[in-house]
Amino acid sequence: MTDYGRAVQFGAFVTPSVELLANTFELAALADETGLDLIGVQDHPYQAKFLDCWSLMGTLLARTERVRVFPDVACLPLRPPATMAKAAASLDLMSGGRFELALGAGAFWEAIGAMGGDVRTPGQAAKALEEAVEVIRLMWSGERAVYSEGEHYRLAGVHPGPVPAHRIGIWLGVGGPRLLRALGRSADGWVPSSSYFPPEVLPGMHARIDAGAADAGRDPSSIVRAYNVFGQVSDTPSDKLFHGTAEQWVSQLTELALDAGMDTFVFGTDGDDLAQVRTFATDVAPAVRAEVDERRGTGAQA
């Protein structure tokens, strides 16, 4: 059993398709109105029918008042970390502290290479991601000049800034042993997806993150554990995970919070269906919060 005692959070997963733009604006308004905590936006710049993730995130922040927005996850090989840090800080300042940053080491390498990005081996991608975390933190440091000598990214006396409105979390969408341990040492959150990492593998992955946290003298409960969950809420029961009634969803997400260490659930469904997101926000999320609080019997850590 793994329960880090963190307050549970809920979000909606957005597909940045040109064809879904009007729906995306409605989804953002719905998330803002129904009390969801987060909107996660896919970042696949090489997809011809996808809008630029960062342009869309800025627009969604401008159209909402309370929900937080993050890239789920940012494509590091096509986005230099120093300029990405500046963009993130800018969005955070303009939105009053409502931006978080999630990074991915890279995937779909042929498409990345076709767009001019570096095609990296797994080891190179892992090293680049570790370096990027350091570069981004330095760019937010408020220091007069910062330096970083990495294999993939360097800072040579750059004047960093601006400083974000709040301490932006750096979350990593990673799954390998090396990067999970690195996450525990230096990052603020983890963002796996249920389609790649089913619940049964999560405890072992938490153990690697926690070992990294121990290496750095960090409290493992300080690390956000966000889970992209893809499925459908229906009126009829189902034996399939993340499919079935709202009651089944409440039971599954409660167990994931109390027994599998996850504290944040970002819901994705076919076509970014608004009715599905509304049901998740109104029938699932509040019930999970109540059930987790009742079974813990104590106040949760924010």
List the helices and strands and how they pair.
Blueprint: E1 9-14, H1 21-34, E2 38-41, H2 53-63, E3 68-71, E4 74-75, H3 81-94, E5 101-104, H4 109-114, H5 122-139, E6 146-149, E7 154-158, E8 170-172, H6 177-186, E9 189-190, H7 202-215, E10 224-230, E11 232-233, E12 243-244, H8 246-259, E13 264-268, H9 274-296
Helix pairs in contact: 1-9, 3-5, 5-6, 6-7, 8-9
Percent in helix:
40-55%
- Give the uncertain stretches in residue-range form: none
* Residue-averaged pLDDT: 97
Structural class: alpha/beta
Number of helices: 9
Radius of gyration: 19 Å
Main sheet attributes: strand count, strand direction, barrel closure: 9 strands, parallel
Beta-strand content: 15-25%
| Outline | globular
Distance between the termini: 20 Å
Give the spatial strand order of the biggest sheet: 3-2-1-13-10-9-8-5-4
Tally the beta strands. Answer: 13
Helix and strand element order: EHEHEEHEHHEEEHEHEEEHEH
Overview of this protein structure:
This protein has helices at 21-34, 53-63, 81-94, 109-114, 122-139, 177-186, 202-215, 246-259, 274-296, and strands spanning 9-14, 38-41, 68-71, 74-75, 101-104, 146-149, 154-158, 170-172, 189-190, 224-230, 232-233, 243-244, 264-268. The strands form three sheets. A nine-stranded parallel β-sheet has the order 3-2-1-13-10-9-8-5-4. The longest helix is centred in the last third of the chain and has 23 residues, at 274-296. β6 (146-149) and β7 form a beta hairpin. It has 302 residues and is an alpha/beta fold. It starts with 8 loop residues before the first strand and ends in a 6-residue tail after the last helix.
